[in-house]
Design goal:
The strands form 2 sheets. This protein has a 6-stranded antiparallel beta sheet, with no helix packed on it. Strands 2-3-6-10-9 form a 5-stranded antiparallel beta sheet, with no helix packed on it. The chain is globular, with a radius of gyration of 15 Å. About 0% of the residues lie in helices and about 55% in strands. It is built from no helices and 11 strands.
């Protein structure tokens, strides 16, 4: 029996400054682009990481603070994983704050163009964003 498996990933560290200014970080791997836009206040500068992987055709984007927990207050954020050839992507989001996973529809939602955005109930706490697409 022959098993073919293919996996690749790229990542980048970035710094979030609590100045309240909108900033964007993105990564491109093959035909997929992961985009994270944010504005945060409170706390001090934090190092975060964005990673985009292709594991046997499943594209996954991870955005978060490796360790320790985040003390930033996010005034706004959006996250998107798109196919650069088609401009679209069906995503499965998993968003967490320092206490764990946030339920879809409560503190965040997915727009018609597959962008993850906060709802009016968003408490401003964000620790990890995971977007997956096949």
């Amino acid at each position: 029996m022959v098993t073919n498996s293919f996996s690749e990933e790229i990542d980048k560290e970035f710094n979030i400054k609590p100045e309240g200014n909108l900033d964007t970080v993105e990564l491109v791997l093959d035909n997929y682009k992961c985009i994270f836009s944010f504005a945060a206040t409170g706390g001090t500068n934090e190092n975060w990481r964005i990673m985009l992987s292709n594991d046997n055709g499943v594209k996954t984007c991870f955005i978060g603070r490796p360790n320790p927990t985040s003390y930033l207050f996010f005034k706004q954020f959006s996250a998107q994983l798109i196919n650069t050839k088609t401009g679209k992507s069906n995503i499965i989001p998993d968003i967490s704050d320092n206490s764990g996973s946030l339920p879809l529809g409560d503190q965040y939602t997915v727009t018609s163009d597959n962008k993850v955005v906060p709802t009016s109930n968003f408490a401003g706490n964000l620790a990890l964003v995971v977007l997956s697409s096949e």
